[in-house]
Amino acid sequence: MEPGARVGLLNPRGLLLALGLWVALGAPAFGQVFEDPDAALQSALRSGEQLTPVSWSGLSAEVAAALKAQSGQALRRSWTRCHQAQSASQPTAYLCIDNMIGKTEPITYLARIAHPSGRLEDLRLLIYRESVGAEIRHPLFLAQFLGKDTQAPLGLSQDIQAISGATYSSRAVAQGSRKLLWLYRLYLSKLSTEQP
């Protein structure tokens, strides 16, 4: 660079300088891991419970279609994994790790659904990949979902209040929770008499 040359944002050096300052001054974190999914599964267990993975092999096309009709969401088997929690060889809950698209990126969360009530007992944000809206991990937001079942609308401005500035993410968690509650009702609850 010649002495006295100007560093503008439109030349490569100026762009790199601006990017460096942006990172140094606190660029928003993308891909925030709040809790490792496997660790979350273990910490969501109650005393004496063991986990057994759930297979999707018994999920028929009819049940998948009913799930989409009732919840408004299709099950992406590669994005959702569920485990049956058992105590003294009896099912006590289903723990599911799922992904829903926020505005543009997947949001990974864990839901614990009680058996046999089908009510949501625990909901945790595990990985957040959007540039804004991670406030949905706040306990006051997540507490709105606890105790809900398939009878709840789980809709924004109905029984769930969105976080300002995180509307897409709030909606994604509400839709995902509704999907998992219906998955429990239509499929997972039936596994309690079978081997998952």
Protein model, in words:
The protein is an alpha+beta fold and 196 residues long. The protein has five helices and six strands, in the order αβαβαββββαα. The chain has helices at 12-24, 37-43, 61-71, 139-143, 167-186, and strands at residues 32-33, 50-53, 81-87, 90-101, 106-114, 120-128. Strands 1-6-5-4-3-2 form a six-stranded antiparallel sheet. A hairpin with a 4-residue loop joins strand 4 and strand 5. Helix 3 (61-71) crosses helix 5. The longest helix is centred in the last third of the chain and has 20 residues, at 167-186. The chain starts with 11 loop residues before the first helix and ends in a 10-residue tail after the last helix. Mean pLDDT is 87; it is low at 9-29.
DSSP E strands, number: 6
Q: Which residues form runs of ≥5 with pLDDT under 50?
A: 9-29
Strand order of the largest sheet: 1-6-5-4-3-2
- Please tell me the overall pLDDT: 87
Main β sheet profile: 6 strands, antiparallel
Helix-strand blueprint:
Layout: H1 12-24, E1 32-33, H2 37-43, E2 50-53, H3 61-71, E3 81-87, E4 90-101, E5 106-114, E6 120-128, H4 139-143, H5 167-186
Antiparallel strand pairs: 1-6, 2-3, 3-4, 4-5, 5-6
What would you say about this model in short?
Helices cover 29% and strands 22% of the residues. It is α+β, with helices and mostly antiparallel strands and 196 residues long.
